[in-house]
Write a structure and sequence with these properties.
The complex is a heterodimer of chains A (112) and B (113). In chain A, 0% of the residues lie in helices and 61% in strands. By secondary structure, chain A is mainly beta. In chain B, strands 2, 4, 5, 6, 9, 10 and 11 form a seven-stranded mixed sheet that branches. Classes of the chains: A mainly beta (112), B mainly beta (113).
């Protein structure tokens, strides 16, 4: 079982739609959670951190459910420019320090 | 602000050839990383460094070597390239191992034939 699992998609949605991605993680010792965005043939970039109480950044809302070990990303009013791959990232504290684990990503296509 | 810069961007190697990927960061970060990204597998850590002169193995270190002679540079070497090393390689840095943001270079596309 992968330590961080995501639905690879692709999710095909029209402009203006609301879309949600989930990500599950297996290690209950996971400390920190993030969403990164990666455009086609580009490097990953931090989209937002995910806090226990949930957090919002404009059209993007991230939530964490520690009991069920999943995090989610909600995108409202989708734009063409939101088309990208969204990577779920989990940081685990172990004896050697922090270990950062990247999910394989969920692809989103927003169509006009 | 250049951030993280890696070279070359594209390279085709023959099996058995050697090469070095160069990475430089201008953010004075302590920590640097080399990842490879393959379809359906996410980013996998090859080697990392927590400071000048130190390196450590990541998840998939076999077939690679690294050096961190200067704080701003992190080199990834392939001594004898194999087709299984065909991948996209990303260098990255962060201000500490537990830092929230990892900054990536633009990637290096390597094909081994």
């Amino acid at each position: 079982r992968k330590e961080v699992e995501q639905d690879p998609g692709p999710f095909n949605v029209p402009e203006g739609a609301t879309v949600a991605f989930n990500c599950t993680y297996s290690n209950s010792a996971s400390q920190s959670f993030f969403w990164y965005r990666q455009d086609c043939r580009k490097e990953p970039k931090l989209l937002m951190s995910v806090y226990s109480s949930g957090n919002e950044d404009g059209r993007f809302t991230a939530q964490l459910n520690r009991a069920s070990q999943y995090i989610s990303l909600l995108i409202r009013d989708s734009k063409l420019s939101d088309s990208a791959t969204y990577l779920c990232v989990v940081r685990v504290l172990n004896t050697g320090g922090f270990k950062t684990i990247f999910g394989a990503g969920t692809r989103l296509f927003v169509k006009a | 602000n250049a951030g993280v810069t890696q070279t070359p961007k594209f390279r085709v190697l023959k099996t058995g050839q050697s090469m070095t990927l160069l990475c430089a960061q201008d953010m004075n970060h302590e920590y640097m990383y080399w990842y490879r990204q393959d379809p359906g597998m996410g980013l996998r850590l090859i080697h990392y460094s927590v400071g000048e002169g130190t390196t450590a193995k990541g998840e998939v270190p076999d077939g690679y070597n690294v050096s961190r002679l200067k704080k701003q540079n992190f080199l990834l070497g392939l001594e004898s390239a194999a087709p299984s090393q065909t991948s996209v390689y990303f260098c990255a840095s962060s201000d500490r191992l537990s830092g929230n943001t990892i900054y990536f270079g633009e990637g290096s596309w390597l094909t081994v034939v």
